[in-house]
Design goal:
Four copies of one chain form a homotetramer. Helix content of chain A is 75%, strand content 0%. The first copy, chain A, has nine helices and no strands. Chains A and B meet through helix 6, helix 7, helix 8 and helix 9 of A and helix 6, helix 7, helix 8 and helix 9 of B. The structure holds a DNA duplex.
Chain lengths: 190, 190, 190, 190
Amino acid sequence: MPKIGMEPIRRNALVKATIAEIGEAGSLDVTVSQIARRAGMSSALAHHYFGGKDQIFLAAMRQILRDFGAEVREALAASAPEARAAAIIRASFDPSSFAPATISAWMTFYMMSQTNPEARRLLHIYQKRLRSNLTQALHPLTPDPGAVADTLAALIDGLYIRAALDFPDRPQVATEHALAVLEQLLGGRE
Amino acid sequence: MPKIGMEPIRRNALVKATIAEIGEAGSLDVTVSQIARRAGMSSALAHHYFGGKDQIFLAAMRQILRDFGAEVREALAASAPEARAAAIIRASFDPSSFAPATISAWMTFYMMSQTNPEARRLLHIYQKRLRSNLTQALHPLTPDPGAVADTLAALIDGLYIRAALDFPDRPQVATEHALAVLEQLLGGRE
Amino acid sequence: MPKIGMEPIRRNALVKATIAEIGEAGSLDVTVSQIARRAGMSSALAHHYFGGKDQIFLAAMRQILRDFGAEVREALAASAPEARAAAIIRASFDPSSFAPATISAWMTFYMMSQTNPEARRLLHIYQKRLRSNLTQALHPLTPDPGAVADTLAALIDGLYIRAALDFPDRPQVATEHALAVLEQLLGGRE
Amino acid sequence: MPKIGMEPIRRNALVKATIAEIGEAGSLDVTVSQIARRAGMSSALAHHYFGGKDQIFLAAMRQILRDFGAEVREALAASAPEARAAAIIRASFDPSSFAPATISAWMTFYMMSQTNPEARRLLHIYQKRLRSNLTQALHPLTPDPGAVADTLAALIDGLYIRAALDFPDRPQVATEHALAVLEQLLGGRE
DNA sequence: AATGAATGAGGATTCATTCAT
DNA sequence: GATGAATGAATCCTCATTCAT
């Protein structure tokens, strides 16, 4: 007895299942059937709702990006103006970003960006937003917030990849590292 | 007309073909047959020489790493002691590192590292070597070469990914950016 | 036009096709595609329903064993107590057991038993059942039904293999042979 | 530096290696390369000497049959006339016949007989010889040596298969069993 | 809304066999 | 006599995707 208004519930379940499944597999080598089974439905229905595997994954990635965005917004709202840049850094290395599923999703996302335009578009949006957040946060702290933001953004990405791939215990080290650099970059001014 | 001593030739051809094919496809979604065809042999022979697809790719990655290592060594040899850190940075953003094939190979490599132990081992070796090179180069320039090396290494990775994925024209920007940060990090001393 | 409830039909068709195909080939050197084609479906569907080639074959063997078991049961039901041992012998050499497909299946089954645990399990079950049937049938006829049953069971297997491999026309000879031995073995009592 | 007169040595090594390899694999699923490697030569040479995989295996089977024939001959020569039938039975269940390699070879041999004429021919020869040996041995003991020989031959095959496939420890049981039946079959006369 | 049924297309891998040296 | 080189052909299996119900 098909219910009405199931669509958002189903889509949500699929997104969650996708993230979980990718996390367990460590890569995108996950079948649509596996995802659908975990989400409690047939693979046909998954296709019905999303149109194809890529789009299922993209939806999952959008979710991850959305969650991260929310985290950043919260962190910013709770911080004094001078602490906002640090807050962004802390959010970037939040343990939730180091869940195996999230790491795998990011790697897959990077790979996909090279051939899938929609993935590339998404990635650009994310990067622009991060840069904009950083620039704004740095505004009261340095005469050239854009330059510092660029450096920090790249550093965050680099530290993330290294922390993710190398040593599962390095998120904290990465945070401290980035914070130290931030200080140093700003310190040059004083 | 089978000649003797073909093995190294074939292996080499396969490695080259793998890199080229990955470059065109933008991912590891390349069949062994495609690679073998481009290398001018049957897929069976490719298997015969390497044992499997993963090992073919790993051999290709080793080649890329080897090439990069050689480039760094050359750059170091040709530089005055104070210019060595800058030389490593320049080598890291050498146009050869931004060939689509190289970028795709790196992404694939990152992905593989999450599940394939041999890939992970390779990646660690590469990272250790880069850090060691940087530390040594920074020795005459700063009292804490290790810390600066860590920052630079992460920054290089971050800038590389961003340059690779975002804007195919940004290698130069990345170089300058990294060099500027280097100066700033060292400048903290003065 | 996919109907619902096809599974048992498909499985059945595959089992039949497997037996037929093995019969024609004289061995398990039959591709899943051949079997599937004969069963009127794609090889992918065959895999979907059975999971793999071995399991397809095992299902076919189970069918053969089941058919044989039914035959024995019928023969036993229709026989007077003193004639039951003879009935089992007759059933064992029924022409249906000498269909090329059945012979090939048995040979394959024997081979498989050496490496495949499930096949070995099945074989043991079959042998236990045969022995139990024989023992029960011999109960009223001899003081040591177990010993006679063992001899008869081995004799039946030996005669079967010889009849199957040697002379396609020997089933009858085998039956008579086994019946004569039965008499002799029991005659020892008198 | 190719030596002269290597042919018999090579052939012998290959036959031995084939038996060993089949024994380890438990089936004919052994590659020519494996066999050749174990025999210390290239697979090409194996082909050169035997022409093909089937013929390599057939040569191995001939060896097994020859060994068994020799064993029987020896046993017969060492026995008093009344003990010859028993000697054949004992030879048939000699531990050497239950080496995994031998068992697997026999199974393979049976399978092959169904499609390979040369294998079938070989099998017939073996069976005729066994029957002839048994008949001769039974001559002084029973008025119908042919009939008893047929029964014993079938029983031996049946017990062999059962002993081989079921319980690796049953050779002795099989021997005793066959000897008991022999006695009984002859006893019917007295 | 939901799914069981079904498949085409492909893909890694294996192997017996051939051949030039 | 001996082999490294090479491959064609095959085979199992997987999976995203479609469709009738």
